[in-house]
Design a protein that fits this description.
This protein is rod-shaped. Helix 1 packs antiparallel against helix 2, helix 2 packs parallel to helix 5 and helix 6 packs antiparallel against helix 9. The protein is α/β, with parallel strands linked by helices and 720 residues long. It folds into 4 domains: 100 residues, no CATH class; 162 residues, 2-Layer Sandwich (Beta-Lactamase); 156 residues, Alpha-Beta Plaits (2-Layer Sandwich); 235 residues, Alpha-Beta Barrel (TIM Barrel), CATH 3.20.20. It is 53% helix and 19% strand.
Length: 720
C-alpha cells in the first residue's frame, strides 16, 4: 500500500539551481532601496520582509528561512536597532519560511493527486485487462498521462539484459522504435539517437540497478557516472530515472522505468509510488498467466496437445475472419479413423490413446505450421487449412497416406486408415461451426461408401436427417423390444441335419445400416444382449422338437470386453434351462486382439459353449493367436464363396482355409452358399457345413418350426 509520510528534504539540487534567482531578487531590493525609501519611507522595510515571499516560494521552506535570517543584515544597514531589528528579522524569517512551506505542501498535494490517479488507473487495468499486452501498454500510457512522467518503459528480462516490450513518451515530437537489437529515437520523424542494447552496461542503468538491489532505484541521469542512457537522457530531456523490478511467481520477469525532467523532489514517495505500480503489475501478470493457463487447458486436448472442439471454434472463427479480409480460400478436413473402436475395445484404452497420439503427430507433420489442428473428440480430428478445392483434396490424400503407415502397439503393428470429409470456405459455409457440420456429413458419406475422401454435397444434409431419425428409432426400438431375432440355419451336407441356427437382428431398417450405427453410438452391447435373450428363448421353445439343436449368436468386440461376461451368459443359460454346449458364440477376428476378450472367450469355452470365428480372412488377427484359442468352427465369408466358379485365386483361398481348419481340428463353414455349383465345389474341397439362401434365408420364429420339419425332405429332393 502506498504511504505518504514525512519525507526528508532532498532538494539541494533545486536550491542550488534557484539560489542565483533568489540572490538576484535580494540584490534588486538593495539597489532599489533608496528609491523605495524616498517614496515609501519606512514602509519599504515592510516591503523588504514580504519581498522574501517569492524567494521562499522559489527556495522552499529551509531556503526561505535562511534568506529571512539573512535579512537581518540589510535591516541593520538601514539603521534599525534592538527590538525593532529583532521584530522585523523574525517577521522576515516567518514570511520566507511560510511561503516556502506553502510551496512545498502545494507541490506535495499535486504529486499525491497525480500518484493516486496513476495508481488508480493501474489498479483498474490490473482488474480488467484480458491480456498481458493490454495491461502493460495501459500501464505505460497511464504513467505518461496520469503520472505526469516524460517517458515510461517496461522491459522484459532476458539473459544478459533486457528487451523493450512497451514504451510511451509524453513529448509528441519524439518516437522510439525497436530495430532488432537497437533502439532508435526519432525527433520529428528523423533519427536522433541509436542505442545498441547488446553493448549497454545494464549495471549503469536504473533498471539494472533495480534488479541488482531488488528494490526501487532513483537515478540522476546527469550525476550518475557513466549512466548507460546518458545520451538518451540528453536527447529526450529527462533528469531523473526511477526503476523497480516486476516480479511474478516469486521470479523477476522484467522492470518498469519512468523518467522526469526535474530532479526528484519527493524521492521516497516517488520510489514508493513506482514500487507499488510494479507490485500491481507483477500480481496482475501472475493472475493473467494463471488465467491463460486455465484457458489453455480449457481449449486444448489433454492427450494430443491439439486444440479441442471449443478451441477450434474460437481460433477457427478468427482464422476465417482473416481469410475473408485477405480474400483467401480455406478448407476444413474432417477426419475419422476407420475401425478405431475395434482397436480400443480389443487392445485397451491405453493402446487406443497411443494410437490417437500417433495420429495427431502425423497430422501435424503433414500440414503446415500455420494450419489449425484439433482433436474434436474420440477418434475425430479436424484441420483448417488455406486451400482451394484441389489443394484440399491433395492435403487429404497426404494425410491419409501418412496415417496408412503401420503403428506399433504393444509390440504388434496396427494398420490405420481414415475417412476424410472436406468442406470449403466460403462456398459451403461461412463460419467454423457450419464447416464442421458439413465436413462431418462428408466424412460420414466417405466412411459409409468407402470412398476415403468425400467433398461436401448438399445431399449430405438430407442423409444426416435420415441418420438422426434412424438413431432415434433404434434407441426407441431397443427400449420397446421392437428388434426381432431371425434365424438362419447352418446345415450338415453329409447327414442333412441342422447343426445350429444363427440368430440375426432384424428391424425395419437393413442390418447393414442399423448395426454399424449401434456400434458407433455405443448401443451394440445392448443389442447383443437383446438378441441373445431372444435366441435362447427361441431355442428353449424348440427343445421339445430337437433337443440337440443349438443356436449361434454374434457378439461384438465391445460386448466381449465386458467384465463378467461369462457369468452373465451362464446366468442366462440357467434361466432358460439350457446346457452351455447348445450355445455357439460367433466372433470376428478383432475379438482376438484384446486380452480381456480372449480371457472371456476361454472362460466361455471352459464353461462348455462352442465358439465360431466369423468372417475369417477379413480381419487382422495373427495365426499364432488363432492357434492358441480353442474354438469349434471357422466360417468362410460370402465374399470368398461367391467367386468360386470364376476365380482360381478365390478358390485357392477357400481351399486353404478348409485345409487350415482340418489341421486345427475344427470344422469349416461356408457362408452365403446360393447355387448348386458352389455347393459341389465346396464338397470337393472337404467342406461339409454350409449356410446361405441355397438352404434357407433368415426366418422369423413363426416360420422356423415348419421349415425344420420340411428341411430333410427338401435336401433330399435337391441332391448336390
Amino acid at each position: 500500500m502506498l504511504k505518504f509520510g514525512k519525507m526528508p528534504a532532498a532538494r539541494r539540487c533545486r536550491s542550488r539551481r534557484l539560489l542565483p534567482a533568489a540572490l538576484a531578487l535580494l540584490a534588486a531590493f538593495l539597489l532599489l532601496r533608496p528609491v523605495l525609501k524616498a517614496n515609501l519611507g519606512d514602509v519599504h522595510l515592510v516591503l523588504a520582509v514580504f519581498w522574501l515571499a517569492p524567494l521562499g516560494w522559489l527556495l522552499g521552506t529551509w531556503g526561505g528561512l535562511a534568506m529571512g535570517a539573512a535579512m537581518a543584515l540589510p535591516l541593520y544597514l538601514t539603521g534599525y536597532r534592538g527590538a525593532d531589528l529583532a521584530t522585523l528579522a523574525f517577521g522576515a524569517v516567518a514570511v520566507g519560511g511560510a511561503s516556502g512551506w506553502i510551496r512545498h505542501r502545494t507541490d506535495l498535494y499535486r504529486f499525491r493527486e497525480r500518484a493516486l490517479r496513476f495508481l488508480g488507473k493501474v489498479g483498474l487495468l490490473a482488474a480488467q485487462a484480458r491480456t498481458a499486452g493490454e495491461l502493460l501498454e495501459g500501464a505505460a500510457q497511464a504513467a505518461v498521462t496520469e503520472g505526469g512522467y516524460l517517458l515510461a518503459m517496461i522491459w522484459d528480462r532476458v539473459p544478459g539484459g533486457f528487451r523493450p516490450r512497451v514504451w510511451r513518451i509524453a513529448d509528441p515530437r519524439f518516437a522510439i522504435e525497436e530495430d532488432g537489437n537497437r533502439l532508435v529515437i526519432r525527433r520529428d520523424g528523423h533519427p536522433a539517437l541509436t542505442l545498441d542494447l547488446e553493448v549497454l552496461d545494464w549495471s549503469k542503468t536504473a533498471a539494472g540497478q533495480a534488479l541488482d538491489h531488488q528494490k526501487a532505484v532513483i537515478t540522476d541521469a546527469r550525476r550518475m557516472r557513466n549512466y548507460a542512457f546518458g545520451a538518451a537522457a540528453r536527447v529526450l530531456g529527462y533528469r531523473t530515472a526511477i526503476a523497480v523490478p516486476i516480479a511474478a511467481r516469486d521470479e523477476v520477469v522484467g522492470a518498469l522505468a519512468v523518467t522526469h525532467p526535474e530532479p526528484a523532489r519527493f524521492a521516497g514517495e516517488e520510489a514508493e509510488l513506482v514500487r507499488e505500480v510494479g507490485a500491481l503489475l507483477g500480481s496482475a501478470l501472475e493472475r493473467l498467466e494463471l488465467r491463460e493457463r486455465l484457458r489453455s487447458q480449457a481449449i486444448t486436448d489433454a492427450l494430443t496437445g491439439l486444440l479441442n472442439r471449443r478451441g477450434f471454434l474460437e481460433w477457427g472463427q478468427a482464422t476465417l475472419r482473416s481469410a475473408r479480409e485477405r480474400g483467401r480460400p480455406m478448407a476444413l478436413l474432417y477426419l475419422d479413423l476407420d475401425r478405431f473402436k475395434e482397436v480400443n475395445d480389443t487392445r485397451g484404452h491405453a493402446a487406443g490413446d497411443r494410437l490417437l497420439l500417433a495420429v495427431a503427430q502425423r497430422l501435424a507433420q503433414t500440414t503446415r505450421s500455420r494450419d489449425l489442428l484439433a482433436r474434436l473428440g474420440g477418434d475425430e480430428f479436424a484441420a483448417l487449412i488455406e486451400a482451394d478445392r484441389d489443394g484440399a483434396i491433395a492435403a487429404a490424400k497426404r494425410v491419409r497416406k501418412a496415417l496408412a503407415q503401420p503403428v506399433l502397439l504393444n509390440g504388434e503393428t496396427v494398420q490405420v486408415s481414415a475417412s476424410v470429409g472436406v468442406a470449403l470456405f466460403p462456398t459451403d459455409a461461412e463460419n467454423v461451426e457450419e464447416l464442421l457440420r458439413k465436413g462431418d456429413l462428408a466424412m460420414y458419406r466417405a466412411k459409409q461408401e468407402r470412398l476415403g475422401i468425400a467433398l461436401f454435397n448438399p445431399q449430405d444434409d438430407r442423409a444426416l436427417k435420415g441418420r438422426v431419425a434412424l438413431e432415434h428409432g433404434l434407441r426407441k426400438a431397443l427400449a420397446d423390444g421392437a428388434i426381432r431375432a431371425y434365424f438362419q440355419p447352418v446345415v450338415d451336407l453329409e447327414n442333412g441335419r441342422v447343426v445350429y441356427l444363427e440368430a440375426l437382428a432384424r428391424w425395419q431398417a437393413p442390418p447393414s445400416s442399423f448395426i454399424p450405427l449401434a456400434e458407433e453410438i455405443g448401443l451394440i452391447a445392448d443389442l447383443d444382449r437383446h438378441v441373445l435373450e431372444l435366441a435362447l428363448a427361441q431355442l428353449r421353445a424348440l427343445s421339445a422338437t430337437d433337443p440337440a439343436l443349438a443356436v449361434g449368436v454374434n457378439l461384438s468386440p465391445r460386448t466381449l470386453n465386458l467384465e463378467g461376461l461369462p457369468a452373465r451368459i451362464e446366468d442366462l443359460l440357467r434361466k432358460h434351462g439350457l446346457p452351455p454346449e447348445r450355445l455357439v458364440i460367433e466372433i470376428t477376428e478383432a475379438a482376438l486382439l484384446s486380452p480381456r476378450g480372449e480371457q472371456n472367450l476361454r472362460e466361455l469355452h471352459n464353461l462348455g459353449t462352442r465358439l465360431a470365428i466369423d468372417d475369417f480372412g477379413t480381419g487382422y488377427a495373427s495365426l499364432e493367436r488363432l492357434a492358441d484359442l480353442a474354438f469349434d468352427y471357422l466360417k468362410v465369408p460370402r465374399t470368398f464363396i461367391r467367386e468360386l466358379p470364376s476365380s482360381r485365386t478365390r478358390a485357392a483361398v477357400v481351399a486353404g482355409i478348409g485345409h487350415l481348419a482340418r489341421h486345427l481340428g475344427v470344422r469349416g463353414i461356408a457362408e452365403g452358399v446360393e447355387s448348386t455349383e458352389e455347393e459341389k465345389q465346396l464338397l470337393k474341397m472337404g467342406y461339409t457345413l454350409a449356410q446361405g439362401y441355397r438352404y434357407a434365408p433368415a426366418m422369423p420364429p413363426e416360420e422356423l418350426e415348419g421349415w425344420l420339419a420340411r428341411f430333410p425332405e427338401r435336401l433330399k429332393r435337391s441332391p448336390p
